[in-house]
C-alpha cells in the first residue's frame, strides 16, 4: 500500500491518493472527518485552526460506503485560501506589491529549501513544508484505522511530556487512558501534569516562544508476525520510525525502552518468555512489542519527540538572503505548541504503517480474503 499527497498550506486545498487499499471495507466519512477534527485540536494552536474546519471530499475508490480496491482520492479544502488569492493564485501575474519572504526562520525548511529549489521568495518553500499537509496522512490513517478495527487492532496516542513537565499518574487501562487523553486539552491523561503543561504553553506564548514534547503511541491487538527480519527495509521498527520521523518537527523515535535500554544490563531489558493457557506471554514489554523488526504479540509502544515550533514571535537572528545583512527571522502566523495535534498525526501514521504490514501478511485484495487468511493464521499460531 502506498500514498501520494499534494497541496500548499494556503493554496486551494490538499489531496491524498491511496493505492493498494483492500476492497469491500465499509468506511465512514464521519469517522475520517472526526480524525481530522482531532488533528485540529489542542491548546497552543494558532489562529489558523479557527478558520479551518477540515473534512474530506472523496472523489474516487469508494462506492456506497465500501472501498473498491481501486485508488482512493481524498481532498481537504483550505478555507483560508479565499484570504490568500492575491498571494497564492495558481495562475496569473505576480502582483507588483507582493510581500516576499527573504529572512529564513531557523528550524524551518526555509533556508535549505530556498537554496535547493532556487526560490527567492521563501513562501515557495514554506507552503509545502508546512504541517498543514499532515491532514492528508490523517485522512489516510483514518481509513487504515477502520481496516485495523476489523481485526481487533486499536491505536492510541497520548502526550507524556511537554517541555519539562512529565505525566506520571497514568491509568493501566488503555480505554481509560484514551478517554482521559481525548478529554484533555493537551491530550495528556494525567490531569495534574495537564495543568502544568498548559502553564508552560502560556509561558511560551507570553515570551514569544514555543514548546515541544513527547507523545506515546500504543497499538493493541497486533498478531505475532507483522514485519520481517529478512530484509532491512521490511523491519517494522524501521518502517515505524521512518514514517514517524517524516512528520514535521519530529526529531526522535524510541521503541519500547528505547534509549533507556542502552543504560541497562541485558537482564533488565529483555522480556522473559512464558507459556500459559495456549499462548506465549511476557510479564514485561521492554521491547515495545517488536523483536527483530517483527511484532511479538505484545503492545507496540513507540515514543516520539517533537521539537518546539520553529516560528518564534520573538525571532532569532537570521540573514536577509537578498542583502546578506543580519536581520531577525521572518514571522509567520503560527502555533505556540502543536504537540497534541502531532500526537493525533502520529496515531494515524502508526495506524497506516501497521495496516500496511497487515495487508502484506494477509494479502490485501479484499477484506474477505484478509479475514479468511487471518483465521487460518490464528489457527496455526495457536498450535505453536
Ligand atoms: C501539527 C503541526 C503543526 C505545526 N505548526 C507549525 C507552526 O505553526 N509554525 C511553525 O513554524 N512550525 C510548525 N510546525 C513544524 C514545522 O512544520 C516544521 O518544523 C518544519 O516543516 C521543518 O521541518 P522539521 O522540523 O521536520 O525539520 C508544525 C508541526 C506539526 C506536526
Ligand atoms: C495549517 C496548519 O498548520 C500550520 C502549520 C505551519 C507550519 O509551518 O508547519 C504553520 C501554520 O500555518 P498558518 O501560518 O497558516 O497558520 C500552522 O497553522 C494545520 O495544521 O492545519
Automatic annotation (TrEMBL):
InterPro entries membership: Chorismate_synth, Chorismate_synth_AroC_sf, Chorismate_synthase_CS
Known catalytic reactions: 5-O-(1-carboxyvinyl)-3-phosphoshikimate = chorismate + phosphate
GO biological process, one term: chorismate biosynthetic process
Co-factor binding comment: Reduced FMN (FMNH(2)).
Enzyme Commission no: 4.2.3.5
Keyword annotations from UniProtKB, A to Z: Amino-acid biosynthesis, Aromatic amino acid biosynthesis, FAD, Flavoprotein, FMN, Lyase, NADP
Role of this protein: This reaction introduces a second double bond into the aromatic ring system.
UniProt-listed HAMAP family: Chorismate_synth
Protein name: Chorismate synthase
Organism: Alicyclobacillus acidoterrestris (strain ATCC 49025 / DSM 3922 / CIP 106132 / NCIMB 13137 / GD3B)
Amino acid at each position: 500500500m502506498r500514498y501520494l499527497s499534494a497541496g500548499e498550506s494556503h493554496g486551494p486545498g490538499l489531496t491524498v491518493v491511496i493505492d493498494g487499499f483492500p476492497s469491500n471495507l465499509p468506511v465512514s466519512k464521519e469517522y475520517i472527518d472526526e480524525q481530522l477534527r482531532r488533528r485540529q485540536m489542542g491548546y497552543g494552536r494558532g489562529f489558523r485552526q479557527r478558520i479551518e474546519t477540515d473534512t474530506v471530499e472523496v472523489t474516487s475508490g469508494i462506492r456506497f460506503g465500501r472501498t473498491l480496491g481501486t485508488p482512493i482520492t481524498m481532498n481537504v479544502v483550505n478555507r483560508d485560501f479565499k484570504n490568500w488569492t492575491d498571494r497564492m493564485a495558481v495562475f496569473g501575474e505576480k502582483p507588483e506589491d507582493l510581500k516576499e519572504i527573504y529572512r529564513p526562520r531557523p528550524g524551518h525548511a526555509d533556508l535549505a529549501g530556498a537554496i535547493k529549489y532556487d526560490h527567492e521568495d521563501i513562501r515557495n518553500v514554506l507552503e509545502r513544508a508546512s504541517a498543514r499537509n499532515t491532514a492528508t496522512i490523517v485522512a489516510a490513517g483514518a481509513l487504515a484505522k477502520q481496516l485495523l478495527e476489523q481485526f481487533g487492532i486499536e491505536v492510541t496516542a497520548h502526550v507524556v511530556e511537554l517541555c519539562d513537565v512529565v505525566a506520571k499518574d497514568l491509568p493501566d487501562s488503555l480505554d481509560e487512558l484514551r478517554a482521559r487523553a481525548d478529554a484533555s486539552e493537551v491530550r495528556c491523561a494525567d490531569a495534574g501534569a495537564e495543568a502544568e503543561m498548559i502553564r508552560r504553553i502560556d509561558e511560551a506564548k507570553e515570551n514569544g516562544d514555543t514548546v515541544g514534547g513527547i507523545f506515546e503511541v500504543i497499538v493493541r491487538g497486533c498478531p505475532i508476525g507483522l514485519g520481517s527480519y529478512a530484509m532491512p527495509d521490511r523491519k517494522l521498527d524501521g518502517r515505524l520510525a521512518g514514517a514517524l520521523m517524516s512528520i514535521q518537527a519530529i526529531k526522535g523515535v524510541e521503541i519500547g525502552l528505547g534509549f533507556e535500554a542502552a543504560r541497562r544490563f541485558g537482564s533488565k531489558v529483555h522480556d522473559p518468555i512464558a507459556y500459559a493457557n495456549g499462548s506465549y506471554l511476557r510479564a514485561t514489554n521492554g521491547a515495545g512489542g517488536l523483536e527483530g523488526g517483527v511484532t511479538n504479540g505484545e503492545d507496540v509502544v513507540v515514543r516520539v519527540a517533537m521539537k518546539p515550533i520553529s516560528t518564534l514571535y520573538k525571532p532569532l537572528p537570521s540573514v536577509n538572503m537578498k542583502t546578506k545583512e543580519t536581520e531577525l527571522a521572518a514571522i509567520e502566523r503560527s502555533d505556540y505548541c502543536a504537540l497534541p495535534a502531532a500526537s493525533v498525526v502520529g496515531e494515524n501514521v502508526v495506524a497506516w504503517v501497521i495496516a500496511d504490514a497487515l495487508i502484506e501478511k494477509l494479502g490485501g485484495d479484499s477484506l474477505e480474503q484478509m479475514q479468511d487468511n487471518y483465521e487460518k493464521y490464528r489457527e496455526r499460531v495457536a498450535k505453536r
